[in-house]
């Protein structure tokens, strides 16, 4: 599953720099996660870094984006390959 940031977000700015895929950005009111860039840190870390640093625990798994570890690893490979080409 991709992750999502709920309305409980306090805009503390700690999650955005922790994302190795640059999937987190400021939305109209709170931070948002681009599900096409989110790998839950698969390929980078053992656990999602945004969840680890969030002081209000407002970053659950998105129940509307059921994804296996294999799908997340494939996305990681695509994203890192694109960075090497750029």
TrEMBL record:
Q: Which InterPro entries match?
A: 4Fe4S_Fe-S-bd, 4Fe4S_Fe_S_CS, PSI_iron-sulfur_center, YfhL-like
Keywords assigned: 4Fe-4S, Electron transport, Iron, Iron-sulfur, Metal-binding, Repeat, Transport
Molecular function in Gene Ontology:
4 iron, 4 sulfur cluster binding; metal ion binding
Record bears the keyword Transmembrane helix: no
A Pfam family hit: Fer4_7
Record's superkingdom? Answer: Bacteria
Keyword Endoplasmic reticulum applies = no
Q: Which GO terms describe its cellular component?
A: cytoplasm
This chain belongs to the protein called 4Fe-4S ferredoxin, iron-sulfur binding
């Amino acid at each position: 599953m991709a992750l999502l940031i709920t309305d409980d977000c306090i805009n503390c700015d700690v999650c955005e720099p922790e994302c190795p895929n640059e999937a987190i950005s400021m939305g109209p009111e709170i931070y948002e996660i681009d599900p096409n860039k989110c790998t839950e840190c698969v390929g980078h870390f053992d656990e999602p870094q945004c969840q680890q640093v969030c002081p209000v625990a407002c970053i659950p798994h998105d129940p509307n984006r059921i994804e296996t570890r294999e799908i997340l690893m494939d996305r990681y490979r695509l994203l890192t390959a694109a960075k090497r080409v750029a």
